[in-house]
Write a structure and sequence with these properties.
Elements: H1 3-22, H2 33-45, H3 51-64, H4 67-74, E1 85-89, H5 99-107, E2 111-115, H6 123-134, E3 142-143, E4 152-156, H7 159-168, E5 173-177, E6 181-185, H8 192-203, E7 213-219, H9 225-229, H10 241-256, E8 262-263, E9 268-271, E10 281-287, H11 290-299, E11 304-308, H12 337-342
Parallel strand pairs: 1-2, 1-4, 2-3, 4-5, 6-7, 6-11, 7-10, 9-10
Antiparallel strand pairs: 8-9
Helix pairs in contact: 1-3, 1-6
Length: about 350
């Protein structure tokens, strides 16, 4: 077992990413031409993966992959003695969304058998190759087109896909993840700076992640204008062709149906108590007291990934601007992946 070399290699990967991102972003080819070309190709294959969003994801990981962070995370777990093959069916909604599952399997001393998403097929293989180089050949993994010969599986898909996956893998140990989204709860006394951080939780990755806020709960006397006033940093999302197409389509539907909504020319706020909203739309609803909020969260617990709010509301929440900055010990669907891997 070479856990120390794997950890050391992962730390070196974090340093590699920091060094890469610390240089002039307009001159990446002078630093690592292969990686730069790969990022550009990734954006070409999947226009949602803009260079900005890919670099944001890489920056978050570069900050997490330190010896202190990794060893603190792993201190609660024990690597298995007998490695097994763990199938991973990865999502591709945001860059590197499956990387946490991959490193969890490797650091548990298992072998990941990875089925990449067609939307995110370039970055992970590159980073795994780098990690293995830094770890002196001690990172074992397989990348496959079809899962075969595995002992357990971790899969992510839509609610419809999840039903199929649950049936298909019914005879295997498994974690099957479904659609989730995140909400924000406004207290009413938020500063402009806090609401600007909330914009990051909404618009980063164009709102495509399960940790993106798609629904905002606010007091009855809160003015929605305050949200629009603090969203301008993300006004350029409308210049992205795919986002703009969604915006124009949803706006046309609301106008045809004569539905109420507020519009600032790049995002719409719509009165609706549903959790999930179409891309370019944020649902907003009002509450009279915090007990209504707690009840709403409890009723929708299986569909909520994260709750964003300021302290003082007594909720199990994270701060504004933190939705896309999960720690190593933050698990999708609140299912402890590392604990699962201990019993595979």
């Amino acid at each position: 077992m070479n856990t120390e070399k794997r950890i050391s290699g992962l730390c070196k990967l974090g340093v590699y990413l920091k060094n890469y991102l610390s240089r002039n972003p307009e001159n990446f080819d002078d630093i690592d031409g292969e990686f730069s070309a790969l990022l550009r190709k990734s954006e070409t294959e999947n226009p949602w993966f803009t260079l900005e969003n890919q670099k944001f994801a890489l920056k978050q990981w570069s900050g997490l992959l330190t010896e202190e962070n990794i060893k603190k995370w792993l201190s609660s777990y024990r690597p298995v003695e007998v490695p097994k093959k763990v199938g991973l069916i990865l999502a591709g909604n945001i860059p590197m969304v499956g990387f946490h599952d991959v490193i969890s399997v490797v650091l548990s001393n298992h072998i990941p058998v990875i089925k990449l998403s067609s939307k995110d097929r370039l970055m992970l293989p590159f980073l795994l190759k780098k990690w293995d180089e830094f770890a002196e050949g001690n990172v074992k993994y397989e990348i496959v087109d079809r899962l075969e010969n595995f002992d357990a599986v971790i899969a992510t898909g839509s609610n419809n896909t999840a039903r199929y996956l649950e049936f298909y893998f019914k005879n295997h140990l498994s974690i099957i993840r479904k659609n989730r989204t995140s909400i924000a709860v406004i207290k009413g006394d938020e500063t402009d700076a806090e609401l600007q951080l909330l914009a990051e939780d909404i618009f980063r990755y164009f709102g495509l992640g399960c940790r993106n806020v798609t629904s905002i709960l606010m007091p009855e006397d809160f003015k929605v204008d305050r949200l629009f006033e603090n969203f301008p940093d993300f006004k350029d999302v409308i210049n992205h062709n795919k986002y703009a197409n969604n915006y124009e389509y949803n706006r046309a539907i609301y106008l045809l149906n004569m539905e109420k909504f507020w519009d600032n020319n790049f995002v719409m706020l719509k009165p609706d108590d549903k959790l999930f909203s179409p891309l370019s739309v944020i649902n907003v609803s009002y509450y009279r007291d915090i007990e209504e909020v707690r009840k709403f969260i409890a009723e929708n617990e299986q569909d909520i990934q994260a709750v964003v709010a300021k302290e003082g509301l007594g909720l199990d929440s994270i701060g504004f601007g933190e939705a896309q900055n999960p720690g190593l010990d933050t698990y999708a669907d609140k299912v402890d992946t590392m604990r699962f891997l201990e019993v595979v």
